[in-house]
Known about the structure:
By secondary structure, this protein is mainly β. It has 1 helix and 7 strands; from the N terminus they run E-H-E-E-E-E-E-E. It has one domain (16-119): Endonuclease/exonuclease/phosphatase (Deoxyribonuclease I, Chain A, 4-Layer Sandwich), CATH 3.60.10.10. Strand 5 and strand 6 form a beta hairpin. It starts with 15 loop residues before the first strand and ends in a 10-residue tail after the last strand.
Amino acid sequence: MSEPCPAPGQPRKLAIWQQNLDRGLDNQQILLETMGRDRYHFAALQEPYIGRNRETRANTWWTAVYPSGHKTSNERERAVMLVNRSLSTNAWSQIHIPCPDVVGIELRGDFGTLRVINIYNDGGHDESL
């Protein structure tokens, strides 16, 4: 990220964008343009656009992370995470969660370990929780 290093004793900040895209391609394109390249570390998306190839839209600044079993399940994903490519792939990994409505990332650094979980919940039940 291009943000300056914090002064000693000042907290570092993690920036996460969260949005329900209502499966719209236009919504997702606007999201990618609005987020820019270096303002956010992660994007937690609910109901992202998923194309016929079963992949979401991202640009060169983002790595898409799908729920575990994405390629082997017939269930439609309703949660996806985008990880900013400025984060070293050695600093994060996907958490295996066998549910198409949940995707998680584990971030490691000198701060310890941080888990970011993105859960889609349709409001009619809390089975994902």
